[in-house]
Hints:
By secondary structure, the chain is an alpha/beta fold. It folds into two domains: about 5-120 and about 305-320, ATPase, nucleotide binding domain (Nucleotidyltransferase, domain 5), CATH 3.30.420; about 130-300, 2-Layer Sandwich (Nucleotidyltransferase, domain 5). It has twelve helices and twelve strands. The protein has helices at about 40, 45-60, 100-105, 115-125, 185-190, 190-200, 210-215, 225-230, 235-260, 275-285, 290-295, 310-315, and strands at about 5-10, 15-20, 25-35, 65-75, 75-80, 85, 110-115, 135-140, 145-150, 155, 265, 300. A hairpin with a 4-residue loop joins β5 (about 75-80) and β6. α9 (about 235-260) packs across α10. The radius of gyration is 21 Å and the shape is globular.
Amino acid sequence: xxxxxxxxxxxxxxxxxxxILAIDGEIQQKWxxxxxxxDEGSYIIPEIIESINHRLNLYDMKAEDFIGIGxxxxxxxxxxxxxxxGAYNLNWRTLQPVREQIEEGTGIRFKLDNDANVAxxxxxxxxxxxxxPNVIFMTLGTGVGGGIIMEGQLLHGHGxxxxxxxHVTVEPHGFECTCGKVGCLETVASATGVVRxxxxxxxxxxxxxxxxxxxxxxxxxxxxxVFVLAEQEDSxxxxxxxxxxxYLGFACGNLGNTLNPSSIVLGxxxxxxxxxxxxxxxxxxxxxxxxxxxxxxKIKLAELGNDAGVIGAASLALQFVx
Length: 322
């Protein structure tokens, strides 16, 4: 059994990442292919199967050398049925019988979960979560997603919506969200949310600021621009970052008070701001948590980068080890 391996797949809108891992989570091989979303995404699964089988043939490996395959995917996932629906960036509008197709095509057992959930599993297992049984992962990218692991179990909730941290309300009369409600964390802490906050605050800011000047000139700015200027002590950029970190710290405080994980791990593109972001989120987290939580729950930065998805996905296959 020790000799056997696991496969992790991180399915994204532009790239499918693959990894073969030892059962201790060490990556032995990595590769990727482009995601072909043509014809309602009908090529995606056949090309995943073809890529796995090609890799196994190349290295003279067989299906029985593997415990299983795990995959993270966008969309609404039925983990029991192994199906996905509504992954619009993949052009998957109809129900996709993913597990059935991959097991049939490779001869290897297969598990499936949401992409944010598997990234959480990866960071918890081999990253900043230090394999603690109680970890929350928050990914700050184009949107805000997350995954919650409590007492060693990934939480899914009754309708599969547990861990939708991006839709925690942080501003009751705030911006409209794509989900249909207002004031979601995603509207103010995602990459686009940071820019939205900057535009809103700039209407009332009158001081000297390079960020303010760029906005007034109608220049396109990114969340990275905001953080870079803040680190250069731009007074208005610092105000924007402080507001974004207030929202994140407020949300993290509520998660901490409710679930008391050992750590809340911040990942995704916005988290590239590093300690500059983390320390400010922690300041507000400390403000909104009661003493025992403040002392026992840590705010951390993700460590695995792009490997979190394949590592976490592969860990799903360990469920086949009895």
